[in-house]
Design goal:
Elements lengths: L1 H16 L7 H4 E3 L9 H4 L17 E8 L8 E6 L12 H5 L1 E3 L5 E3 L9 E8 L4 E15 L2 H31 L11 H15 L13 H18 L11 H26 L3 H12 L5 E14 L6 E17 L9 E14 L11 E14 L3 E12 L3 E13 L2 E10 L6 E11 L5 E3 L5
Antiparallel strand pairs: 1-16, 2-3, 2-15, 3-6, 4-5, 6-7, 7-8, 8-9, 9-10, 10-11, 11-12, 12-13, 13-14, 14-15
Helix pairs in contact: 5-8, 5-9
Amino acid sequence: MKNICTILAIILIQFVWAQDTNPEKKEKEISFDNLEVPNTPAFILLDEAPTSIQRPNSTRAFALDLIQDVTEDGVLGNLAVEVTPFWMIQHTHMTPEKYYGIKTQEDGSVSQNFFSKLRLASVSAAYMKSADSITNISIGVRTTLFEIKRQDDIKDYKEALQQAQKYLNNSANYMEQYNTQCKIPKPENYRSETAFQEAMQTYKGICDKPEPTRPTVGATDEEIQKYRAAIKEYRLACYCPPDPRDYDTTAQFEAAKEWYEAGLNAFREKKREEDNFTAKDLDVAFKEITSRKPLFAIDLAAAYNQRFFGNTFNDNTAGRFGIWSTLTLSSFLDKKKTNRDYFNVYGFVRYLDDTRRGIFPAANDDRFNAFDLGVKGELEFDKLSVAYEYINRSGDMEGYRSVGTIRYQLINDIFLTGSFGNNFEETDDLVTLFGIKWGINGALQSITIPQTD
């Protein structure tokens, strides 16, 4: 029942956060709703994640990670959450170039900010209960310290941004065009040629004349009232955007506003089809480019866990602290970069400070230090990735992890993962993990595209 409630709650949160009530907003922002959902550092610390060697190209506002060892009882009993604070704040001064980590110089050349991903640091927390009734509560952080993008990717991003700015400028021009035309009578809106000619004559009789002149200071009440009636008639007949001053009730003004917006949107869509470029094309272009993995990246993560014995809060002791770095080199499997097919090679180094498992209470001399060195190879396709990782542990604790993993993107926001292999320990070292990950998009998970003059 607990798991069912969790699933329903997450689906509800995702539905609420993903809503976009302003249709014009999509025309002015890049919406990042296809970001990744990696394993959380809070799970990786305890060697309970399907893969220990992984780096996120990007992270979502909120992610939920459910994992279960299939050799144990229970259903997805281990839980972790991860939050990216960057996506919790409205970034009014964040430009698409700054977010992507590039800067256009005065001479037109483009330079990279190799440390731009630092702002996308995430924090995580995890709950896990082991077979010996020890409850582990972990917290973790991670960030990308350094990354190098391909020059081709930077060029494509700049071209997409220029296309977006052109699109927005055209949208403004469309509005201006519509405002100069929409009140002019059109033959298709009248049942007869006579009715159309009468409407056109009325329109010209009012709108071909100059706008009524505002009364000067000291004008009589009669002159003021006459002007108000004349300017109202002029605005209603000639101006497209409705003015609330010209309507007797709010309902009348809202009806006029609805009519205006419907006509404007229809006009814009018609012009965009003529230009053979739509908001959907713009969205797809940015999502594809920003999802490309960098050529090279260095990530840093750290985590700490506290152990609680026998479901008793006071019976707790320090568990494990770890800090690690992941180096990633990514290459496209073919020249069609839009296929999102990669061969990724990872290097992994980690320091661990651990207490002896099963000793209670843990004494100072029960602490152990260890160093992990690992490598991983991964074939990553559009929705499927297959990988193998090997990690050697040395120091006070020795062992190795040799695990094969598979991951599949079921739908845009849900990922299935599984792994099988050896996991460090001399006994109970079998890795048989299955997990489900939810990635939840935040309402602020977007960057405004500036409109140029």
